[in-house]
């Protein structure tokens, strides 16, 4: 068998076959070069990722048999960043055999209150004892009969002018109100400010509060028990402010303070009496600013209500 050609065959290739084989080999080499092959395969297998290629023709000495055939490249030690020196702290003392480790003092958290008549009676007593708005504010801050005071960040008591002739009452504060401790300061409050400006009022000429002075977790609706517990405080707050006109922002505050059962769309725009321990106050319900943000088309109804409020204020000035 002849082996004189570039490929081992059973016969000597003719000149035409040799040319075709040469062209095929050149095409194969071009394919390897285009594929990224840049070296020949060694006779001995090795891991090219962890070892360094050694010449295949290099003879091995007997004393090198125990050494790896292809040692890896020497690693360079990277300098580590110098850490600032810190004072050494004394090691903790070892516990003596049989001794028990001292327990950290337990943090005392106020226990939750089960809403009931006792909590409502306590709220009534605290509200009656307040002879001024400052005293009522302090009574609310120290009152622990409502669980909402344990989850809220701040007590949202009131904002505006307590000498005003008109008082607005909402249901409960939201996230922005809870953070700032003031009622109606979020998007709803910004809309309320624009509504007040439309009839010539601002925060310095009105008084704003809520039935529930603490934000319910997750902005959920206050439960009937929570509303009942907080109601004596807002009733006393209305008595102390003694406005000429009381405006319920939304159906929830109107229902809580007057006992009406109609929906807000039927209730709004109607004047109704609100009785305190000393006199009767004209009251009117209108749409809550948060509802108007969800249903802008209903702003026309709120505009009518605010026009009626502005007209009633002017009538009182002329009387």
From TrEMBL:
Which parts of this chain are annotated as the region Disordered?
A: 51-109
Q: Which sequence ranges are marked TM in the entry?
A: none
- Provide the GO MF annotations for this entry: 4 iron, 4 sulfur cluster binding; metal ion binding; uracil DNA N-glycosylase activity
InterPro entries from the xrefs?
UDG_Type-4/5 (IPR051536), Ura-DNA_glyco_family4 (IPR005273), Uracil-DNA_glycosylase-like (IPR005122), Uracil-DNA_glycosylase-like_sf (IPR036895)
Q: Which GO terms describe its biological process?
A: DNA repair
Keywords, ordered alphabetically: 4Fe-4S, DNA damage, DNA repair, Hydrolase, Iron, Iron-sulfur, Metal-binding
Looking at the record's lineage, which domain of life comes first? Bacteria
Write down the SUPFAM superfamilies for this protein, in alphabetical order: Uracil-DNA glycosylase-like (SSF52141)
* Composition-biased stretches (Low complexity): 91-101
Q: Known catalysed reaction(s)?
A: Hydrolyzes single-stranded DNA or mismatched double-stranded DNA and polynucleotides, releasing free uracil
E.C. number, please?
3.2.2.27
Q: Give me the stretches of Pro residues compositional bias.
A: 81-90
Q: Which residues form the Uracil-DNA glycosylase-like domain?
A: 157-307
Q: What Pfam families does the record point to?
A: UDG (PF03167)
PANTHER family listed in its UniProt record = TYPE-4 URACIL-DNA GLYCOSYLASE, TYPE-5 URACIL-DNA GLYCOSYLASE
Q: Which family does it belong to?
A: Belongs to the uracil-DNA glycosylase (UDG) superfamily. Type 4 (UDGa) family.
**Annotated protein name in UniProt:** Type-4 uracil-DNA glycosylase
């Amino acid at each position: 068998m002849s082996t004189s050609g570039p490929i081992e065959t059973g016969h000597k290739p003719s000149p035409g076959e040799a040319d075709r084989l040469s062209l095929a080999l050149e095409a194969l080499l071009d394919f390897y070069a285009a594929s990224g092959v840049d070296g020949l395969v060694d006779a001995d297998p090795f891991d090219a990722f962890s070892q360094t290629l050694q010449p295949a023709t290099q003879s091995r000495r007997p004393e090198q048999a125990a050494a790896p055939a292809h040692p890896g490249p020497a690693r360079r030690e990277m300098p580590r960043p110098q850490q600032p020196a810190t004072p050494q702290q004394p090691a903790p003392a070892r516990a003596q055999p049989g001794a028990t480790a001292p327990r950290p003092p337990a943090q005392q958290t106020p226990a939750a209150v089960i809403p009931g008549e006792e909590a409502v009676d306590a709220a009534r007593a605290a509200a009656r004892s307040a002879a001024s708005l400052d005293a009522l504010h302090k009574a609310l801050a120290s009152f622990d009969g409502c669980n909402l005071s344990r989850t809220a960040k701040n007590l949202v008591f009131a904002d505006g002018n307590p000498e005003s002739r008109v008082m607005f009452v909402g249901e409960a504060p939201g996230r922005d109100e809870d953070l700032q401790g003031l009622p109606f300061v979020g998007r709803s409050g910004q809309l309320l400010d624009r509504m007040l400006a439309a009839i010539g009022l601002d925060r310095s000429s009105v008084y704003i509060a809520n039935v529930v002075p603490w934000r319910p977790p997750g902005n959920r609706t206050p439960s009937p028990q929570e509303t009942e517990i907080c109601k004596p405080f807002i009733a006393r707050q209305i008595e102390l402010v003694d406005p000429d006109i009381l405006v319920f922002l939304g159906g929830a505050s109107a229902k809580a303070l007057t006992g009406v059962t109609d929906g807000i769309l039927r209730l709004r725009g109607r004047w109704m009496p609100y009785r305190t321990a000393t006199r009767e106050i004209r009251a009117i319900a209108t749409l809550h600013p948060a509802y108007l943000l969800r249903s802008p088309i209903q702003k026309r109804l709120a505009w009518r209500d605010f026009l009626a409020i502005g007209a009633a204020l002017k009538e009182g000035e002329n009387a």
